Amino acid sequence: xxxxxxxxxxxxxxxxxxxxxxxxxxxxxxxxxxxxxxxxxxxxxxxxxxxxxxxxxxxxxxxxxxxxxxxxxxxxxxxxxxxxxxxxxx
Length: 90
Description:
Elements (H helix, E strand, L loop, with lengths): L16 H22 L12 H25 L15
């Protein structure tokens, strides 16, 4: 009878139950980041062979996601977001 229950199992013995739950919940944030990259930032999959190009592509995606989050934080709640041209004024 596990209706409505979520069972988390881990192979990391030194985590407390609270830490396991927090790590599980952080997955949602990571998944949101990938969703933003694919939908709002529109970064498409690109296949690279060279390790330097793979690292550069990953860094560009990471920087794009960080900039997106910074702009959303600076712009405030959705109901009061200003025009994007005013987001970076000091």
